[in-house]
Amino acid sequence: xxxxxxxxxxxxxxxxxxxxxxxxxxxxxxxxxxxxxxxxxxxxxxxxxxxxxxxxxxxxxxxxxxxxxxxxxxxxxxxxxxxxxxxxxxxxxxxxxxxxxxxxxxxxxxxxxxxxxxxxxxxxxxxxxxxxxxxxxxxxxxxxxxxxxxxxxxxxxxxxxxxxxxxxxxxxxxxxxxxxxxxxxxxxxxxxxxxxxxxxxxxxxxxxxxxxxxxxxxxxxxxxxxxxxxxxxxxxx
Length: 237
Fold this sequence. Notes:
It comes from Ligilactobacillus ruminis. The chain is an all-alpha fold. The chain has helices at 2-22, 33-50, 59-77, 83-103, 109-116, 120-137, 152-156, 165-182, 186-197, 202-209, 213-236, and strands at residues 141-144, 149-151.
């Protein structure tokens, strides 16, 4: 009877596994969607075994974290973001920062390409890498330290958090993030809102905007890069 009940519980939460798996980028990895889904099911079973109802946390919230964690841990172990690609991302941020310090304004993609000596296609690859890192390796974290982490979700979704010195610091960083997002283009803001607030996948966003999935990935990556630049700029003032 216990096994039957457990099987029914697993079936009940399979749509949750599907939602989580759909939001994990598999570009630059050796995985297919079915692989992520199967890993997610293992994460779901693990969540069922370890869930502690006395902590008053909704099971679905806890399970989503365990499912996502299981998938991300597996993908990270076999990530194809090479040192070369990471070097390109770092070079991009350095070139962008140097240009903006020199020109005292936001720079264009063409100016970045000229500075780095790369093509439009190569810049697109860099934005893809940034999008991948934000959705998997960095789990959408824009900046963090040992004490607190601020995510895009924190600015798009209302949340009530306990007061205290750390929370006040987090609130300040959230304000910086809100201001940074306001400086994005309307389309970039829409992509972030759909991705983080509405939990839409890149495929779903592509259908809404009537563009390719690759284009959505690049818009998302460019937005993350801009936000990081805006935050660094604010911290230097």
